[in-house]
Design brief:
- The protein is an alpha/beta fold.
- The chain contains 16 helices and 24 strands.
- The protein folds into two domains: 16-264 and 465-485, 3-Layer(aba) Sandwich (Aldehyde Dehydrogenase, Chain A, domain 1), CATH 3.40.605.10; 269-454, Aldehyde Dehydrogenase, Chain A, domain 2 (3-Layer(aba) Sandwich).
- β12, α10 and β13 form a beta-alpha-beta unit.
- Mean pLDDT is 96; it is low at 1-7.
- The structure holds nicotinamide-adenine-dinucleotide (NAD).
- Nicotinamide-adenine-dinucleotide (NAD) is lined by residues 161-165, 170, 188, 190-191, 220-222, 225-226, 229, 240-242, 245, 248-249, 263-266, 297, 393, 395, 421, 461, 465-466.
């Protein structure tokens, strides 16, 4: 076992961040983090405890109630967020290498996508920080001259619980709007991939964020996450992760009347009509399935193709999938890296075996690559909507193609899912686009493209894909509460 020491990787302190100090866990316990692609030891991180959560929440609460953050003007808060965006950009390569090592995703995806988007998110919400406003109302007198208005206020301490698949970007989705609105934060990154969140916190201190405004507690979901959800001084939990854990959090937060935003799993449809230009459809449709090794909530892993173009589409998709370069996440030209863990590998290979047992036709892929790391071939099956692989989120590089004959059938198939995160329409027919964008049961629709969320646009899922919005004005307001004021002058 070796410790990775590449000089261009920006390793953060291997510690909890509580009240501006880098600390060990209260018990001193640590856990080991390995690079999924190689098995190299990357870090020994503190195994946080409920006592650590208490300390982090106390620091965040003190900062919120008495500290300089809650008294700072929106413009001053915005300057710090903007500075953080600059620091992320100046450390772009180091952060992207760290993300590639820790998550196993290709360096290029982090360098050109995830890390710049995190910077853009901080910059976007920096612009909102001095624009958190209420409304005024013209109402009849009420025993005297009346002025009624609302003010928007921060919630207090926000608890953020992160997944491992795109930790830098998703950390920015939670930190930037919460801080812009004037809240303080306790963050729990996923145990599998905490390093870039710690690095972001380090950069936030460098940007001038006062101690205690942003606290990070690493460790397990069952201990640290659970303690956060149950903590009486956390006003809101913003969670991104699996639907199963999201339901647990909702059940725990409900009786405490705690606000939640839950961004959960997906099983997103792509619908391809004969008028679409397959030269541009196939590479992007495939990227939607295989980006980040398929470990993307918005992965368009159910592909509905009009029967008249099925053979042509399958032939092109097979050729494209077989051209994808799978290998070292830091290697030149790598397009797909390693799954995150042995557990994820076993789960993905289990779904592939189930697809075979259920009679799906394998178009390409279907196997693990090598025996070091957790590499899986880009895999495509052809089948029907009732296959397990067409119903459940796999979170791996596996797509299912299902043919359809007319629009009514395509809509039924696309909506025939427990999930409702995103959908992609591949057509130029405006009547069809209007009908499907209205009738699809999803939070986000792409037409003739697929990509990551932009911080200016609300991001949300419906059905089993989530509760509440993140990003955009809606995501900012989700970090505030409204207060109604009536001023009566006699
Ligand atoms: P996960 O639910 O296993 O874990 C997410 C986080 O929850 C981790 O930090 C984990 O430690 C914590 N956790 C686990 N048990 C907990 C508990 N009992 N109480 C509190 N916290 C607990 O998810 P994952 O495997 O890290 O991420 C993959 C999932 O995330 C996929 O389903 C994917 O679709 C989803 N996801 C959704 C979005 C979105 O925007 N909708 C984005 C990215 C990922």
């Amino acid at each position: 076992m070796t410790t990775a020491t590449q000089p261009s990787v920006s390793f953060p302190p291997q510690a909890l961040l509580i009240d501006g100090e880098w600390r060990a866990a209260s018990t001193g316990a640590v856990y080991s983090v390995y690079a999924p692609a190689t098995g190299d030891l990357l870090a020994e991180l503190p195994l946080g405890t409920p006592d650590d959560v208490d300390a982090a929440v106390a620091a965040a609460r003190f900062q919120f109630e008495t500290g300089e953050w809650s008294r700072l003007s929106g413009a001053e808060r915005g300057k710090i967020l903007w500075r953080l965006a600059d620091l992320i950009e100046s450390d772009l390569e180091g952060l992207a290498r760290l993300e590639a090592l820790d998550v196993g995703r290709p360096f290029g995806e982090a360098f050109f996508g995830e890390i710049p988007l995190a910077a853009e998110t901080f910059r976007h919400f920096a612009g909102w920080a001095d624009k958190v406003t209420g409304s005024t109302y013209s109402l009849p007198p009420f025993g005297g001259d009346r002025l009624s208005y609302t003010i928007r206020q921060p919630l207090g301490v926000v608890g953020a619980i992160l997944p491992w698949n795109a930790p830098t970007m998703i950390a920015s989705w939670k930190i930037a709007p919460a801080l812009a609105a004037g809240n303080t934060l306790v963050i729990k990154p996923a145990a599998e991939a905490s390093l870039t969140t710690l690095r972001l916190a380090e950069l936030a201190l460098e940007a001038g964020l006062p101690a205690g405004v942003l606290n990070v507690v690493t460790g397990s979901g069952a201990v640290v996450g659970d303690a956060m959800v149950g903590h009486p001084d956390i006003a809101k939990i913003t969670f991104t992760g699996s639907t199963a854990v999201g339901k647990r959090i909702a059940a725990q937060a409900g009786p405490a009347l705690k606000k939640v935003t839950l961004e959960l799993g997906g099983k997103s449809p792509q619908i391809v009509w004969p008028d679409a230009d397959l030269d541009s459809v196939v590479p992007t449709a495939a990227f939607s399935v295989f980006a980040n090794q398929g470990q993307t909530c918005a992965s368009g892993s159910r592909i509905y193709v009009h029967r008249s173009i099925l053979d042509e589409f399958l032939s092109r998709l097979k050729t494209h999938a077989e051209s994808i370069v799978v290998g070292d996440p830091l290697g030149d030209g790598t397009q797909m890296g390693s799954l995150i863990s042995q557990k994820q590998l076993d789960s993905v290979l289990g779904y592939i075996a189930t697809a075979r047992e259920e009679g799906a036709t394998l178009l390409t892929g279907g196997s693990r690559i090598g025996d070091t790391g957790y590499f899986v071939q880009p895999t495509v099956f052809v089948g029907t909507n009732d296959l397990t692989i067409a119903r459940e989120e796999i979170f791996g590089p596996v797509g299912t193609v299902v043919p359809f004959d007319d629009d009514d059938e395509a809509l039924l198939l696309a909506n025939g899912s427990d999930f409702g995160l995103t959908a992609v329409l591949w057509t130029n027919d405006s009547a069809r686009i209007n009908r499907f964008t209205r009738e699809l049961q999803v939070g986000v629709v792409w037409v003739n493209a697929w990509g990551p969320p932009h911080p200016a646009l609300p991001w949300l899922g419906v059905k089993a894909s989530g509760v509440g919005e993140e990003l955009g004005l809606e995501g900012l307001l989700a970090n505030t509460r409204v207060k109604t004021v009536n001023v009566i002058s006699a």
